[in-house]
Amino acid sequence: MRYLNRKILLPAVLSLALVTGACAAGEAAGTSSVAGQTAAQTLADNAAVEEVADTTGQAEQTITLSGSSATSSSDTVTVDGGVVTITAAGTYRISGTLTDGQVIVDVSGDGVVTLILDGAEITSSTSSPLVIADAESAVVQLADGSQNTLTDAATYVYPDAETDEPNAALFSTADLTITGAGALTVHGNANDGIASKDGLVIESGTITVDAVDDGIRGKDYLVVKGGTITVTAGGDGLKSDNSEDATMGYVGIEGGTLTVTAGGDGVDAATDVVVSAGELAVTAGDGASGSVADDTSAKGLKGSASVVVDGGTITVDAADDAVHSDGSVTVNGGELTLATGDDGLHADGELAITDGTVVVSRSYEAIEGTTITISGGDVDATSSDDGLNAGNALTISGGTIVVNTGGDGLDSNGSASITGGTVVVNGPTENMNGALDTDGTFTISGGVLLAVGSSGMVEAPDSSSPQGWVAATFSTTQAAGTVVHVVSADGTVLASFTASKAFASLVYSSADITSGSTYIVYTGGSVSGDSVGGLTTAGTIDGATAAGTFTAGQAPAGGMGGGRPGG
Fold it and tell me: What is the rounded average pLDDT of the residues 203-213?
């Protein structure tokens, strides 16, 4: 096991029920995270999104861009060569092409500035093409059917050495909302693509961003409610980086279709990443087969305080962890398909899965946390090392969990408890690891457990477990594809399993097993019907061969640990 010497773990509250204690979160954020919270509960603990006043029906002023200059119908717009400055709140429709210049909003009073981009193409050779330098709040509305483009300079020219803003092709010092049914393409040649120093909300639109550094960044928060968004970034894809206020620095995805390709993290929040709906596809650091420098973070979804998923469809291909938090990770729903060069789901603190579908198709360790609690959902975890790796406690009370691992299958540096659900482990083929591996007590009082693996480190639940279990070792290694059955003394087939790889040991527990009774393990025969990870109750032993008779609750022969008196 590598958990304790690979990551710095944070203190956690241990429980056999759904973990609800708090643990320390990211140091900079200074906030706390609670595993098991819903998306709504997490957002309620954060600063609310600023509501923008409805300006529908407000009289429009026009700004017409024309080559190196522009004209306007408004006396609150000034034009100085290629620099267009808006000096009062209101609604401005911008169209045409500005080949080298800027549109700047500089409004000291209250009110909303709404910029309707209606076929606007703005390029700057020295700075950002669209800057909200001062305003109470701003809205960029993409006119229906319009195509709009913002392109900044590769190198910005600032008035003095102390000035380093603007630093994005679309830059705002105020709360910014992007909406409308048009399209916007943003080229961030110097730094970021779209950035707000306050909050940033994307309601709709077709938005394409390519940026040298971060793609889309809202300092206080970044909330995506809809739209079709494509981001290609040399740094992080979607980001919120206010680490000074524990109620800010979050990223919320509530809808839309998002495709993010990032050299750094796909989604990076100083506090919480919260996904409740939408479709999100992330490639980070050239994907699971890529490599990253020691000083580079290339994770799929990263929230320093927490990551909470309540819904939506999430696909991640990341060089580093697919889903990561320095605090807690909670999956309450949705569909997650994860491929990673490191961990599938990783929490330095608590990790809880209550519902949803989690498929880790490739990982070093599939699911890792100080505590891991699974009470529902469907989990399919494939790893080259440990499948489920808990630093202190592993608790399973519901759901279906299928593990295919090269290392330990279920691994806890502390205790493990199974009270419900169905758990199937295709464990390691090498003797240095085991399908089951705990350092503390291991009890089972409900549910179904089927674990196969090598015979060098066979472990079974404690002999004091309320539910019976059978442990068997085989005289020779059984080949992948072998069918194995657990049969009662009266010939009733209780479980049938088709192994996905070679194995030399088996542990089975269900309500049908009675401690002290004898059971026969057969190989061969056939199976039929639906299965969970190869496990079914619909099997026959016609033509099968008896591999041995075993007493329920008796420690496996030839292994290390297992069947401890504990209790």
Answer: 98
For the chain, the domains span 50-219, 414-567
pLDDT for res 31: 44
* Residues near 530 by beta carbon (within 8 Å), at least 6 away in sequence: 536
Q: Where are the beta strands (DSSP E) in 212-319?
A: 216-218, 221-224, 228-233, 238-240, 250-253, 257-262, 267-269, 272-275, 279-284, 301-303, 306-309, 313-318
CA distances from 153 to 157, 176, 190 (A): 9, 22, 6
Dihedral sign computed on CA atoms, order 435, 439, 443, 446: negative
Give the pLDDT confidence score for residue 563 in this predicted structure.
Answer: 46
Structure token digits, residue 140: 């960029």
pLDDT value of residue 326: 97
Neighbouring residues of 84: CB distance < 8 A, sequence distance ≥ 6: 63, 65, 70, 72, 77, 78, 98, 101, 102, 103, 104
**End-to-end CA, the chain:** 24
Determine the pLDDT at residue 36: 78
Rounded Cα distance between 20 and 34, Å, is 6
The model's pTM = 0.92
**Cα–Cα distance for residue pair 449/423, rounded to 1 Å:** 5
The DSSP bridge pattern shows strands 250-253 and 469-478 to be: unpaired
Tell me how crowded residue 313 is: count the other CB atoms within 10 A of its CB.
16
For residue 517, the model assigns a pLDDT of: 97
Non-local CB neighbours of 161 within 8 Å, separated by 6+ positions = none
The three-class DSSP label of residue 81 is coil
Q: Rg of the chain's alpha carbons, rounded to an integer? A: 28
- Which residue, chain included where needed, has tokens 């069947």? 563
> What is the average pLDDT score of the chain?
91
**Which pLDDT band, with edges at 50, 70 and 90, does 33 fall under?**
low
* Distance separating alpha carbons of residues 356 and 368, to the nearest angstrom: 18
What is residue 457's predicted lDDT score, i.e. its pLDDT? 82
**What's the DSSP call for residue 264?**
S
Beta bridge mates, 216: 194, 238
Tell me the mean pLDDT in the region 233-245: 97
How far, in Å, are 56, 193, 202, 275, 307 from residue 49 at the CA level?
20, 22, 12, 15, 19
- Compute the average pLDDT of residues 383-404: 98
C-alpha closest to that of 194 among 256, 142, 114, 132: 132
What are the b/e assignments for 130-161, b being 16+ CB within 10 Å?
A: bbbbbbbbbbbbbbeebbbbbbbbeebeeeee
Query: Is residue 39 classed as helix, strand or coil in its secondary structure?
Result: helix
Tokens of 330: 């909670």
Nearest to 37 by CA among 376, 254, 308: 308
What is the average pLDDT across 275-304?
94
Q: Is the pLDDT of residue 296 over 60?
A: yes
**Cβ-proximal residues to 38 (8 Å cutoff; 6+ apart), any chain:** 308, 310, 332
Q: Residue 246: pLDDT above 70? A: yes
Whether residue 95 is predicted with pLDDT greater than 80 in this model: the reply is yes
Residue with tokens 């969990």: 401
Q: Output the six-digit token pair for 89.
A: 């709140």
